[in-house]
UniProtKB/TrEMBL annotation:
GO terms for molecular function: PDZ domain binding. It is a multi-pass membrane protein. The keyword Cell membrane does not apply. The keyword Flavoprotein does not apply. This is TMM88 protein. One of its GO terms (cellular component) is plasma membrane.
Length: 142
């Protein structure tokens, strides 16, 4: 049966807050994984730009003794070349973790706010955030 307008509004806010929290959790997980996996690229490109004479031209000792403009350019190019495979690795790790933790299933439909007696998960989906008794078999493409 349909909920009253105020109850529907309250449940809409609760479901919206929960969906926003799940979205922020996904975003945080994505940011942490990409930062860790892309750290070699970030370091290599940073040192390449820092020691190049036409970009930042740092007066650090390693820039004067080890890195000249040619080696700085090589570091910049190397950093951008190794970025592509590391992006693929980072996305594969994120997708694997999101599937294992079932974070994408935790988003709830707004129809739960409209009708009484709705379940916290749809039939055939299981997740830690759902009510007990859901099916644990989950396909990523469903």
């Amino acid at each position: 049966e349909p909920r009253s307008p105020w109850c529907c509004l309250a449940w809409t806010l609760v479901i919206g807050a929960m969906n926003s929290l799940v979205f922020l959790l996904n975003l945080l997980l994505l940011f942490v994984i990409f930062t860790i996996v892309l750290l070699p690229t970030i370091v290599v490109v940073y040192f390449g730009f820092q020691c190049h004479s036409q970009v930042l031209h740092s007066s650090a000792r390693y820039c004067k003794s080890i890195l000249d403009d040619n080696s700085s350019s090589a570091l910049i190019i190397l950093g951008f070349v190794i970025m592509s495979p590391l992006l693929v690795v980072a996305m594969a790790i994120y997708c694997s973790l999101a599937r294992r933790l079932r974070l994408l299933v935790c988003f709830q439909p707004y129809s739960l706010a409209v009708y009484k007696g709705g379940r916290w998960c749809r039939r055939g989906e299981g997740a830690p955030c759902c009510a007990g008794g859901c099916n644990t078999q989950l396909k990523a493409w469903v």
